[in-house]
Specification:
alpha/beta; 41% helix; Rossmann fold; six-stranded parallel β-sheet
C-alpha cells in the first residue's frame, strides 16, 4: 500500500508519519516540498504517484490571519481539497481529511453530532466547511474527521504557549466561557491509522463507512481549566514557573477580542465514530498530562 500524505510537518502530520507506516509506504509532503496553491501541479502529482490512499493533514490554520487572507485560506482549505477529492474519485481510492469544530457557530447547548446544521463564524471555518462539501460532492470514498483544540509537542499550540507564558509572567488571564475538548495530534493519528486499516480490510463496505466523523477525547473543559491543568502538571513535574494555577484568572471571550469569532460551544459528539469503528477515546486529561511530561523533559521525538 502506498499512502500520499500532505501536511507532513504539521502537528498532526508528524504523528501521521509514524502511525501510517504500519499500513504501508508513506510518501510525505509538506508545504516546503509542495505548494498546494499550485492546483494543476497538485493534480498531476497525485496522478504520477497513483497512491492507494490520500491523507490530507495540510490546512491554512491561522484563524485570525485568515480574516485578512480569505483567498489564500480558500485555496488551501477548499480548492486544493477539491482537487484531492476529484483525483481520489478518479483513482477509486479513499481520501482522509481533517476538519474542525469551527464549522459550527457554537450556539448548541449539547455536543454537536455530525449532521447538525453548520454555520461557521469565521473565514477559517467557512473555508474548512467548503473543503468538506467539495469532498462529499466529488463522490469519492472518504473519512472526514472533525476535531478540536489540537496540540502536540511540535509547532505552536495553546498548551506550549501557556507553559512559555507561565515562565515569563506572574499572572495569566485565560478565557473561561468557551467549552471544548483538547485533542492530541497523536490520538488523531492513531485513530486515523486504525480506521483506515479497517476500511481496507472491509473494502467491499467502504462506501458504507465513508462519511464525516467527530474525533476528540472524552470529557469536556474550557481554556481556563485547560491552562490550569497544564501549569499544575508542569509544577508537579518539577518545572520552575512564575505562575501558579491559582494566579491564572478567568476572563470572558468579550474581554479578549480577536479578528475571528470562535464558537462558544465546541463540544463534538463521538458516538458515530466509536460505534462504527470500535475505537477507544481516552479522557482528555490523559494525553495532556503526557504532553506536559514530554515538554518539561525536553522530549519532542
Amino acid at each position: 500500500m502506498k499512502i500520499l500524505l500532505f501536511g507532513a510537518r504539521g502537528q498532526v502530520g508528524i504523528e501521521l508519519q509514524r502511525s501510517l507506516q504500519r499500513l504501508g509506504e508513506v510518501i510525505a509532503y509538506d508545504q516546503e516540498e509542495f505548494d498546494l496553491t499550485d492546483l494543476r501541479n497538485l493534480s498531476a502529482e497525485i496522478q504520477t504517484i497513483s497512491p492507494s490512499a490520500i491523507v490530507n493533514a495540510a490546512a491554512y490554520t491561522a484563524v485570525d490571519k485568515a480574516e485578512s487572507e480569505p483567498e489564500l485560506a480558500k485555496t488551501v482549505n477548499a480548492d486544493a481539497v477539491e482537487v484531492m477529492a476529484n483525483e481520489a474519485k478518479r483513482l477509486n481510492i479513499p481520501l482522509i481529511h481533517y476538519s474542525t469544530d469551527y464549522v459550527f457557530d457554537g450556539t448548541n447547548t449539547k455536543p454537536y453530532v455530525e449532521d447538525d446544521k453548520t454555520n461557521p463564524l469565521s473565514v477559517y471555518g467557512k473555508t474548512k466547511l467548503q473543503g468538506e462539501e467539495a469532498i462529499r460532492f466529488s463522490g469519492c470514498n472518504h473519512l472526514i474527521f472533525r476535531t478540536s483544540w489540537v496540540y502536540s509537542p511540535h509547532g505552536t499550540n495553546f498548551a506550549k504557549t501557556m507553559l512559555r507564558l507561565a515562565a515569563e509572567r506572574e499572572e495569566l488571564n485565560v478565557v473561561s466561557d468557551q467549552t471544548g475538548v483538547p485533542t492530541s495530534a497523536s490520538l488523531i493519528a492513531g485513530v486515523t491509522a486504525e480506521c483506515l486499516q479497517k476500511c481496507f480490510q472491509r473494502q467491499d463496505e467502504f462506501s458504507k463507512l465513508s462519511g464525516t466523523y467527530h474525533l476528540v477525547p472524552t470529557g469536556k473543559t474550557n481554556w481556563f481549566e485547560f491552562a490550569k491543568r497544564v501549569i499544575s502538571k508542569a509544577i508537579e513535574g518539577g518545572e520552575q514557573l512564575k505562575v501558579s494555577p491559582d494566579s491564572i484568572k478567568p476572563i470572558l471571550t468579550s474581554n479578549y477580542p480577536t479578528p475571528a469569532s470562535r464558537p462558544i460551544n465546541s463540544l463534538l459528539n463521538t458516538d458515530k465514530l466509536t460505534k462504527t469503528f470500535d475505537v477507544y477515546l481516552p479522557p482528555w486529561e490523559q494525553d495532556v498530562d503526557h504532553l506536559v511530561i514530554k515538554l518539561i523533559q525536553g522530549i519532542t521525538a
